[in-house]
Amino acid sequence: MIHVDQLYYRYPGQHHDTLKGLSFQVAPGEMFGFLGPSGSGKSTTQKLLIGLLHGHRGNAQLFNKDIAQWRADIYRRIGVGFELPNHYSKLTALENMHLFASLYGLSKSQATPRIQQLLADTGLSDQAHLRTEEFSKGMKMRLNFARALLPNPDLLFLDEPTSGLDPVNASNIRNMIRQHKEQGKTIFLTTHNMYDADELCDRVAFMVDGELKKIDAPRQMKKQFGESTVTLEQRNDAGQLISADFPLQQLADNPAFLQQLARYPVETLHSKEASLEDVFIKVTGAQLT
Ligand SMILES: Nc1ncnc2c1ncn2[C@@H]1O[C@H](COP(=O)(O)OP(=O)(O)OP(=O)(O)O)[C@@H](O)[C@H]1O
Ligand SMILES: [Mg+2]
To answer: Which end of the chain is more exposed for a tag (fewer CB within 10 A), N or C?
Structure first.
């Protein structure tokens, strides 16, 4: 679905490449996460793939066709959720949706029920007749997301879809992303939210400073690089709470743990799974945020 080979990009007037030889493939029906700290080049990659930036070096194909050869016809086959929502501020949410439906070539009778469903699913039915200039950031993000799903695209690009959303709306959007994937659609998810990446993606690419450091399934990465730990909290003789971490593996044979355990009464004992963020830091040496 997406084939990228040795992709380089330099913004006009800059002295260094922002993307430095990316290579990856996304299979049909896959949810592929692009994870990396701010400024690592995630949005630049998405913008190149959807044809918003030009002048790359290397090879990139969508639907087995070079991105340089795509014209406006590409926009009927992909859905795009932008990092910063860009709606027509003087138009209402409903008018914005109908405008984009017409750009996608949907007839009014096709578009109307779909738009109503999407506005309901994103919790915007009550705001359908409000001009988007009166929308909060979260409402704009949700409308942006609804718009991306409008053509029911085989290939969906989402750039930070849950950014700025409260937990309930974020979880709702995650569910809608999952449902879209369940229809066999392909999703390219750009994020620095490791929870989203971990929960949603079949595979995740770690991006740092314009380079891909590792691509694998989150589960596999955690298995390979993550270390589960146990946190022991105790109250010492002076009544102070002290805390120490130990590897979960072979805990019962760990003399340091056993010694500490015998020293003071136990207040709490918790095990902690390695997070994708731990793995990211270990693999790339960089922080995620
Ligand atoms: N129009 C531009 N002109 C010049 N440099 C740019 C432009 N847009 C982005 N950059 C630079 O390219 C690099 C990558 O930016 P990009 O927006 O792709 O990062 P990102 O990984 O999406 O970050 P974030 O998580 O903050 O969204 C940054 O150093 C940024 O300053
Ligand atoms: Mg970005």
So the answer is: C
Work out the angle at residue 149's Cα, subtended by the Cα atoms of residues 143 and 154, and round it to the nearest 5 degrees.
160
> Regarding the domain with residue range 2-223, which homologous superfamily does it belong to in the CATH classification?
P-loop containing nucleotide triphosphate hydrolases (3.40.50.300)
Distance 235 CA to ligand 1 centre (A): 48
Rounded distance, CA 160 to CA 190, Å? Answer: 6
In this prediction, residue 222 has a pLDDT band, given cuts at 50, 70 and 90, of confident
pTM of the predicted protein model? 0.85
Q: What was the pLDDT predicted at 105?
A: 85
Nearest alpha carbon, ligand 1 atom 17: 43
Query: Which residues, chain by chain, have CB under 5 Å from ion ligand 2?
Result: 42-43, 83
Which one of 10, 22, 43 would you pick to mutate in the ligand 1 pocket, going by the greatest count of ligand atoms within 8 A of its CB? 43
Ligand 1 centre to CA of 162 (Å) is 19
Beta bridge partners of 159: 190
C-beta 193 within 6 A of ligand 1: no
Q: Ligand 1: which atom is nearest the Cα of residue 46?
A: 18
Q: What is the pLDDT of residue 287?
A: 78
210 pocket-lining for ligand 1 (C-beta < 6 Å): no
Distances (CA, A) of 256 to 154, 251, 259, 261: 54, 9, 5, 9
Burial of 287 (0-12, 13-18, 19+ CB in 10 A): exposed
| Interval 11-36 mean pLDDT | 95
Domain assignments of the chain as residue spans, ordered by start: 2-223, 227-273
In the prediction, which pLDDT does 245 show?
Answer: 93
In whole angstroms, give the CA distance from residue 78 to residue 80.
Answer: 7
Question: Is the pLDDT confidence value at 73 over 80?
Answer: no
What's the confidence (pLDDT) of residue 230? 92
Instruction: Report residue 212's pLDDT band, with 50, 70 and 90 as the boundaries.
Output: very high
